[in-house]
# Entry
Amino acid sequence: MKHRTVLITFLLTCLTFSALGQKVMSYNVRHCAGMDKVVDYDRTAAVIAGQQPDVVALQELDSMTERSGHCYQLGELACRMQYHPVFGSAIDYKGGKYGVGILTREQPLSTKSIPLPGEEPRVLLVVEMRDYVLACTHLDLEEEPRLASVPLIVAEAQRWQKPFILAGDWNDTLGSPLLQAMTKCFTILSDSTPTSPADQPQECIDFIASFNTYPVDALDSKVIEEPTASDHRPVVVTLSFDRQAIERQLKTYPESTLQDVYKSFYQDRFGPGHMIADTASARQYLMYELAEMKDKPAIYFEPTGSKGRFVRVYLSAVADGLITADKLLDAFVRSANMVQESSDDWAAEWHQIEETIIKNDIKVNGFEADTALLREASRQHQAIHHSRAYNAAYHPHYRIVERGIFENELKPLLNDK
# Structure
């Protein structure tokens, strides 16, 4: 018991949040049996935790089978890392179930399993997160059922109005009929370095891909050099949703300048950006804004940046009687007074956002004029105001609220409008 407690403590020290993207891992763990055929949950968990993933797609998991000593293998891994487990059963096997699983840092919004064809039945496990959907599968050994799975996977991806990430063991290689069919609708994000067998990899059959309707960018991709913990090597991709957030901002607010893009991402990282000690003055200013507010936006709230750690709650929600001024003020003050995010790598994060704009040729008003100013602001970790153009066009009146506070206390009062 003492050994396991020490191990869990070690694993948790590995699991820190990455400010620069969402890290996705895919790993065929072969029921946690390594190349030495020893089932070792500590070893498997250490491999996963060492990469600090936000979500993990796992294949070949036992659930309560005789082979695994009637153990819930996904739960064993989740317990060691304090992740949320979601299991998808493909078949009944030796007194239990056998299939795939997903581990997530944050609580998923919804989950579902979709049967896929196979000589041995397969499954597509789908987990909805706030900003994207992750699907995990382990396709059949035979080509015909693999190809028959493609339209079923595409149909599911088309249902979602957010990025759809597909990860797993596809049991096929680049250039094959399966990969040709997949890449008509998906973009492969993962490295093509061989993944199997783990001790002397010869071919890449493990992939992470995004559905083309909602494209995402891969900031980094690698196959982990782990030769013993399973018969496959794990694949890791760091995803960025910055492009989507920038394009959403420009579509919603076409008069935005680069300064307004910076402000949204800065608020996403740091929230209100300062502590509030004088709540009386804060309330007085809120009431002043309410009295002076002329134009009301069509929405009551919207996420900041690409991660949505904080939410802009518009004063129109108060003006329309959905929430009280005091309730919004309380949520705002508590959000502002939370422990502040470290600003050490804010300049690097802003540089990444700039690079996303340039790489994707996104037209942003004032890009050339504002670039030098905002680079210096990022180095100084400075908050900035909305641009004059934005203020003139949209007359923004809102307060920044931490996402958890918003979801639990304010959103139910807004009737999901």
